[in-house]
Write a structure and sequence with these properties.
With about 375 residues, this protein is α/β, with parallel strands linked by helices. Helices cover about 40% and strands about 15% of the residues. The chain contains twelve helices and twelve strands. It has helices spanning about 10-15, 20-25, 60-70, 85, 110-120, 135-140, 160-180, 185-205, 210-215, 230-245, 280-295, 325-345; strands spanning about 30, 35, 50-55, 80-85, 100-105, 125-130, 145, 220-225, 250-255, 270-275, 300-305, 315-320. It has a five-stranded parallel sheet with strand order 4-3-5-6-7, with helices on both faces. It has a five-stranded parallel sheet with strand order 9-8-10-11-12, sandwiched between helices. It has a two-stranded antiparallel sheet with strand order 1-2. The radius of gyration is 20 Å and the shape is globular. The protein binds 6-O-phosphono-alpha-D-glucopyranose (G6P). 6-O-phosphono-alpha-D-glucopyranose binds near residues 57, 58, 59, 112 and 155. The site of 6-O-phosphono-alpha-D-glucopyranose (G6P) has 16 residues, from helix 3. It is an enzyme of class 2 (transferase).
C-alpha cells in the first residue's frame, strides 16, 4: 500500500500534490488559440440558454456554487443551484431554454442520478460533469464533460474538486462565448487558468502551514466565512475539516454573521476568513473586525501583497494574487491541506473518515 501512495503517508496528501497535473489533464485539448473550447458541447444550443440549473451533492455542490457566482456576473442568465436530495423532491420547471448541469465525481451518487432522470423526463437537456469514464451519470445524460483528474482514492475530494472548478470555469466561458460575451476580465481568467498548473506547483512547494495547523488542532469549533464567489470556499473548507477532523466547523456568508452565528464567537471559537482583495474585500474586512471585537482568533487567507490584514488578524496565509473569479481555485489546496494536517495531527486517518463513503449509491 505504501507503494500505491508513492511515499506519501496518505492518499489525500498524495492527491493534493497531484493537483498541478490534474489541472493540466483537465485543460488538454480545451485550450486553443481561439480561447477555451469544450468540444463535447459543439452540438449544444448554448446561445439560447437562459436558465441553468445545477445539481450535485457534497463537494460537487460547492463547485456548482462557484459556477453560479462566476457566470451570473457576466450574463443575464438565471442560475440556480441545489443539492440533489432536495432537487429531486422539488417541482423543477424546465423549458427549452433551460440547461441542467449535473455534477458527480463518481457518477454514481443516487440522489444526483435520480435528479437527472427526473429532469430528462421533463425534456431537459443535461450536461454531466464526471471523473469516471462510463459511470452511470455519463450514460444517462445527453453529454459528459470529463474532469480528467485521474482516480481519487481518498474519501475527501481534493484534486477532483479542483478539476470540477476548472471544468466549470471552462463551461461558463463556453456558454458566455457562445452568447457573444467576452471581455478583458474573462480573458484574464482564462490566462490564469492556463498558468494555474505552475502556480499550484509553486504554491504546493512553498507553503508551510504545519505550525499553524499544529496550533489550531486543539480547537473544537471553527467558523468559516466568505463572501460572493469566496463563500463556497468557506463551505468547502468547513466541510473538509468536519469530514476528516470531526471538528465542529460551520460556514456562513460573512454578512450573515450578525444575524445569529456571531453569538457563538469567543476566544475558543476561531474564525477562518476567506479574504482576498477582490470586489467584496472591504465587506469581509469589516466582518473580520466584528469577529475580532468578540475576541475570536482569526486566520485569514488572502493574496500576496496584502499587508492590510496583518494588523487585525492573528494568522495569515498567502496565495498568489489572482483575478477575482479565480480565488476559489487557487485557495483550494490551502483549505484542503489545513484540514488534512489537523486530521493527521489529531491522530485520525484522513483517507477513511468514519461514517463516510466515497460515493453514496443509496438514497
Ligand atoms: C460523498 C463523498 C463526498 C462527495 C459526495 C458527492 O459524500 O464523501 O466527498 O463530494 O459524495 O459525490 P459525487 O461523486 O457525486 O461528486
Amino acid at each position: 500500500a505504501a507503494a500505491e501512495k508513492s511515499g506519501y503517508k496518505h492518499f489525500m496528501i498524495k492527491e493534493i500534490y497531484e493537483e498541478p497535473e490534474a489541472i493540466e489533464s483537465a485543460l488538454v485539448g480545451r485550450v486553443t488559440l481561439d480561447g477555451p473550447v469544450l468540444h463535447e458541447l459543439k452540438e449544444f444550443d448554448l446561445e439560447n440558454v437562459e436558465k441553468i440549473k445545477l445539481v450535485a451533492c457534497g463537494t460537487s455542490y460547492h463547485a456548482a456554487l462557484v459556477f453560479k457566482y462566476f457566470v451570473e456576473k457576466y450574463a443575464n442568465i438565471d442560475i440556480e443551484v441545489d443539492v440533489a436530495s432536495e432537487f429531486r423532491y422539488r417541482n423543477i420547471y424546465v423549458d427549452d431554454k433551460t440547461l441542467v448541469v449535473a455534477i458527480s465525481q463518481s457518477g454514481e451518487t443516487a440522489d444526483t442520478l435520480e435528479s437527472v432522470r427526473i429532469v430528462k423526463k421533463k425534456g431537459a437537456k443535461v450536461v454531466a460533469i464526471s471523473n469516471v469514464v462510463g459511470s452511470t451519470i455519463t450514460r444517462e445524460s445527453d453529454v459528459t464533460v470529463y474532469m480528467n483528474a485521474g482516480p481519487e482514492i481518498g474519501v475527501a475530494a481534493t484534486k477532483t474538486y479542483v478539476n470540477q472548478l476548472v471544468v466549470l470555469y471552462l463551461l461558463g466561458m463556453e456558454i458566455l462565448k457562445k452568447k457573444g460575451i467576452w471581455n478583458e476580465d474573462l480573458e484574464n481568467d482564462f490566462e490564469f487558468l492556463k498558468r494555474s498548473p505552475n502556480l499550484f506547483r509553486k504554491l504546493l512547494e512553498d507553503f508551510k502551514i504545519d505550525e499553524l495547523a499544529s496550533y489550531y488542532k486543539n480547537y473544537n469549533h471553527f467558523m468559516y466565512i466568505g463572501r460572493g464567489i469566496n463563500h463556497p470556499t468557506a463551505l468547502e473548507g468547513a466541510l473538509k475539516l468536519k469530514e476528516i477532523s470531526y471538528i465542529n466547523a460551520t460556514a456562513y456568508p460573512a454578512g450573515e454573521l450578525k444575524h445569529g452565528p456571531i453569538a457563538l464567537l469567543d476566544p475558543k471559537f476561531p474564525v477562518f476568513a476567506i479574504a482576498p482583495q477582490g470586489y467584496l474585500y472591504e465587506k469581509i474586512k469589516s466582518n473580520i473586525e466584528e469577529s475580532k471585537a468578540r475576541k475570536a482568533r482569526i486566520i485569514a487567507i488572502t493574496n500576496e501583497g496584502n499587508e492590510d490584514l496583518l494588523k487585525i488578524v492573528d494568522d495569515i496565509i498567502y496565495v498568489p494574487k489572482a483575478p477575482d473569479d479565480m480565488y476559489p481555485l487557487i485557495m483550494s489546496p490551502v483549505i484542503q491541506m489545513f484540514a488534512y494536517l489537523i486530521a493527521d495531527m489529531r491522530g485520525y486517518d484522513p483517507d477513511k473518515p468514519r461514517n463516510l463513503a466515497k460515493s453514496v449509491t443509496v438514497e
